């Protein structure tokens, strides 16, 4: 097992402890780890297995099944372009393509500087403001292809300061 | 917090809070109550800042005793949000911006003066409409069953819910036997709102009367892209869903209820958790509910982004910490469900209807709707329709009423093409189906299904082959991989559809698609697989000529499929301004030698009509969206 920092081991143990009274808490533990660290690498899965007694193969199965979990770190800003039906019929695919083109990445990838990840979302329920883009939880309503550049620049400017 | 341990305490609280609520809605002269929409759509348009600003102004003006301001659940008319409603006049302000708050406060709140410019303008009559119920969008709706309390009560205050009648249905149920409760729901005719439409009372009656633990599960894994009914119901009135859950729990003999909610709905989760915590504190949730020997506790589990978890057995696996893959049925969850014990899974909207039935009696519920389906249905009306939003209509309302009377028709004078209901499992209905009254049976007969309530309107600019491809991409991503017909078959369908949309289709592809679709339908374990190819089959049936155009003529009539369309500058319309040339990212546009013309038909001296080099064009559309005179078309 690759070495985890003692601090991480401590924190993950705490997360597992949080749910010790719950029957079958695997998902809850993994959700907290995903939120805390942004990803769940193999060594963390091994540690969770050790702490909970759930076979690591099962944990790996769960991590790879649900789109919410990731095994690679995500960028600082996760750009989620909604491709739900309401957004799609209003042209969100074009918005997504534009983000990809300007950032030079495909959906699911992260820019080399670790700043942006481009994710496709399946309906965030913001159909009334379609096409919607969500960046780290902030919803941008009615995004047009022409707005994409400004949105990216907004975050780049934030980083430059 | 004051305890509610028995019926008497509940009634006392109901009277007290009900009076408060009435006082708020019908407040005396000089008093005002401001409510602001706190649904996800309006929150993304800064409605929280609006409310903070109102509260700040109330304080600054020393009006705390006379004016209140709080959030409420979704108004439903999301394309006009954010909403601010002022009582007692019930003036509804739409599209309110943070910058408008001071004017609203100065004029309406302090001087009783209606701010006309922020009222809704009827698109037909061009008249300002002051009150919510006079707006066409609301006229055909009845929002008092599943959406009870939405747009009226503060979802983060259990006292407002109690004052609005919450737990009165539970109280009545607790005076009945379990069988009587099930019978009441059976007689009401309530059918599951998650999509399949199974009679709710019957589902409850399947649970054996044994001593083993039983579980009530609320399915809030609203995965259908384009649907947000369940989210809005939880966000707008979490107590209603909790009450429905408790009544169901009492009827089946469960002591624990699990809410399975999508992680993508943080506001819904937050409000639900807050309501559960406060109900536990006052004693409505916990041991000896309202002084009876019925005990009930609620727990929340979050989904992690898997559409298939909306299938009840997959959902149960997910709560058990496993991959969300469906189990073979039988055994049905009612016999062997969560952790091997009898469990009932009901959808959010279904549970939100239950308190109404118990509170008002089954007769009132059964009086609404059609012979086939009773009650109301909440639809998330979206896509190419003027009034996008959340709509609750009595069953039996026609699709035409839904799209034109409530939805306000198609924007931009475009032509209606199809309405997609039932999400990825449903189908497309066309012009000829518009007078179909909405209920479970008639939508299936017309070739689609009710589904959970997504209703996406499409106009002439949408390519139906592309729409089928869109749904297939979704299904392909979301197939859990357990059954090979679904796992491999949907991928093959997507390959064929992609080939067709790339302009490389041939007539044989259509036969292959049909055959494959039938194999997948007949050989998959769960409803996701069985219905996976409905979007293909229904669009093929309703729009055969569009498929033919793609595979025979290699043309996309809606000009959506990029490989089969071109951008074209009409030389007689181009004024030669050169804007498109500057906008083009790949330098595909240049002036020709032909003279450009002014809109009046005269030659624009010194200017030349521009042309697009199709070899260089990447079809991004920047030229078309930038052209101010509409000289560029797709062909």
Short description:
The complex is a heterodimer of chains A (161) and B (635). Chain A is α+β, with helices and mostly antiparallel strands.
Structure characteristics:
heterodimer; A: 161 residues; alpha+beta; Glutaredoxin; 2 domains; four-stranded mixed beta sheet; 4 strands; B: 635 residues; alpha/beta; Rossmann fold; Ubiquitin-like (UB roll); 5 domains; five-stranded mixed beta sheet; 19 strands; 39% helix; globular
Q: What does it look like?
A:
- The complex is a heterodimer of chains A (about 160) and B (about 625).
- Chain A is an alpha+beta fold.
- Chain A folds into 2 domains: about 5-65; about 75-160, 3-Layer(aba) Sandwich (Glutaredoxin).
- Chain A is built from 7 helices and 4 strands; from the N terminus they run H-H-H-H-E-H-H-E-E-E-H.
- Chain A has helices at about 5-20, 25-35, 40-50, 55-65, 85-90, 90-105, 150-160, and strands at about 75-80, 115-120, 135, 140.
- A 4-stranded mixed beta sheet of chain A has the order 2-1-3-4, covered by helices on one side.
- Chain B has about 625 residues and is an alpha/beta fold.
- Chain B folds into 5 domains: about 5-140, Glutaredoxin (3-Layer(aba) Sandwich); about 165-360, NADH-ubiquinone oxidoreductase 51kDa subunit (Rossmann fold, 3-Layer(aba) Sandwich), CATH 3.40.50.11540; about 375-460, Ubiquitin-like (UB roll) (Roll); about 465-560, Up-down Bundle (de novo design (two linked rop proteins)), CATH 1.20.1440; about 565-635, Alpha-Beta Plaits.
- A 5-stranded mixed beta sheet of chain B has the order 12-11-15-13-14, sandwiched between helices. Chain B has a 4-stranded mixed beta sheet with strand order 2-1-3-4, covered by helices on one side.
- In chain B, helix 19 (about 485-500) runs antiparallel to helix 20.
- Chain B starts with 6 loop residues before the first helix and ends with a strand.
- Chains A and B meet through helix 2, helix 4, helix 5 and strand 4 of A and helix 2, strand 11, strand 15 and helix 18 of B.
């Amino acid at each position: 097992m690759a070495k985890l920092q003692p601090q991480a081991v401590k924190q993950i143990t705490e997360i597992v402890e949080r749910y010790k009274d719950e029957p079958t808490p695997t998902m809850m533990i993994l959700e907290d780890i995903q939120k805390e660290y942004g990803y769940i690498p193999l060594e963390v899965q091994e540690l969770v297995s050790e702490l909970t007694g759930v076979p690591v193969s099962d944990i790996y199965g769960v991590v790879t099944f649900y789109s919410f979990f990731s095994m690679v770190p995500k960028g600082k800003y996760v750009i989620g372009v909604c491709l739900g039906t309401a957004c799609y019929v209003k042209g969100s695919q074009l918005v997504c393509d534009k983000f990809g083109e300007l950032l030079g990445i495909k959906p699911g990838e992260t820019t080399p500087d670790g700043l942006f990840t481009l994710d496709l979302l399946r309906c965030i329920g913001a159909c009334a403001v379609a096409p919607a883009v969500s960046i780290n939880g902030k919803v941008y309503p009615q995004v047009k292809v022409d707005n994409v550049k400004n949105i990216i620049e907004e975050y780049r400017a934030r980083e430059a300061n | 917090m004051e305890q509610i341990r028995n019926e008497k305490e509940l009634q006392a609280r109901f009277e007290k809070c009900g009076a408060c609520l009435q006082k708020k809605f019908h407040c005396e002269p000089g008093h005002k109550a401001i409510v602001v929409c706190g649904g996800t759509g309006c929150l993304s348009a800064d409605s929280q800042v609006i409310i903070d600003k109102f509260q700040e102004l109330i304080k600054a003006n020393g009006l705390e005793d006379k004016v209140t301001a709080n959030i409420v659940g979704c108004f439903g008319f999301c394309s006009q949000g954010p909403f601010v409603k002022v009582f007692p006049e019930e003036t509804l302000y739409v599209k309110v911006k943070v910058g408008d708050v001071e004017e609203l406060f100065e004029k309406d709140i302090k001087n009783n003066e209606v701010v006309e410019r922020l009222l809704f303008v009827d698109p037909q009559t061009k008249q300002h409409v002051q009150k919510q119920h006079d707006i066409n969008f609301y006229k055909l709706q009845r929002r008092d069953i599943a959406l009870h309390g939405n747009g009226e009560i503060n979802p983060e205050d259990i006292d407002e819910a109690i004052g609005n009648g919450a737990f009165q249905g539970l109280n009545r149920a607790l005076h009945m036997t379990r069988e009587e409760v099930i019978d009441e729901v059976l007689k009401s005719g309530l059918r599951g709102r998650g999509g399949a439409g199974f009679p709710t009372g019957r589902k409850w009656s399947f649970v054996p009367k044994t001593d083993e633990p039983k579980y009530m599960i609320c399915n809030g894994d609203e995965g259908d892209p384009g649907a947000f009914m369940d989210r809005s119901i939880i966000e707008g009135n979490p107590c209603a869903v909790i009450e429905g859950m408790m009544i169901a729990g009492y009827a089946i003999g469960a002591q624990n209820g699990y809410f399975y909610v999508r992680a993508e709905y943080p506001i819904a989760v937050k409000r639900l958790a807050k309501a559960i915590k406060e109900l536990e504190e006052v004693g409505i949730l916990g041991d000896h509910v309202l002084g009876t020997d019925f005990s009930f506790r609620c727990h929340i589990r979050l989904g992690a982004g898997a559409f298939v978890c909306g299938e009840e057995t997959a959902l149960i696996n997910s709560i058990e910490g496993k991959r969300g893959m469906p189990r073979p049925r039988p055994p049905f969850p009612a016999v062997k469900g969560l952790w091997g014990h009898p469990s009932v899974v009901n959808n959010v909207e279904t549970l939100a209807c239950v308190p109404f039935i118990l509170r008002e009696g089954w007769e009132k519920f059964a009086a609404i709707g059609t012979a086939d389906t009773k009650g109301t249905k909440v639809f998330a009306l979206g896509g190419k329709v003027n009034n996008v939003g959340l709509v609750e209509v009595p069953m039996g309302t026609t699709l035409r009423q839904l799209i034109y009377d409530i939805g306000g028709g198609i924007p931009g004078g475009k032509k209606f093409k199809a309405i997609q209901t039932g999400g990825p499992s449903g189908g497309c209905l066309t012009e000829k189906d518009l007078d179909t009254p909405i209920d479970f049976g008639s939508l299936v007969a017309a070739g689609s299904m009710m589904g959970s309530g997504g209703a996406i309107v499409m106009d002439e600019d949408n390519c139906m082959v592309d729409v089928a491809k869109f749904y297939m991409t979704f299904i392909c991503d979301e197939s859990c991989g357990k059954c090979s017909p679904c796992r491999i078959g949907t991928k093959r369908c997507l390959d064929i559809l992609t080939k067709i949309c790339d302009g490389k289709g041939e007539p044989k592809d259509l036969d292959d698609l049909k055959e494959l679709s039938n194999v997948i339908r007949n050989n998959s374990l769960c409803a996701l697989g069985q219905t996976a190819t409905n979007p293909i089959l229904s669009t093929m049936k309703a729009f055969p000529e569009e498929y033919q155009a793609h595979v025979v003529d290699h043309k996309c009539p809606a000009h959506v499929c990029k490989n089969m369309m071109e951008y074209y500058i009409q030389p007689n319309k181009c004024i030669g301004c050169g804007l498109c040339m500057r906008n083009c990212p790949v330098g595909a546009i240049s002036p020709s030698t032909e003279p450009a013309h002014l809109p009046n038909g005269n030659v624009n001296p010194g200017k030349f009509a521009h042309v697009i080099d199709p070899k260089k064009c990447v079809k991004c559309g920047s030229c078309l969206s930038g052209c101010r005179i509409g000289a560029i078309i797709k062909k």
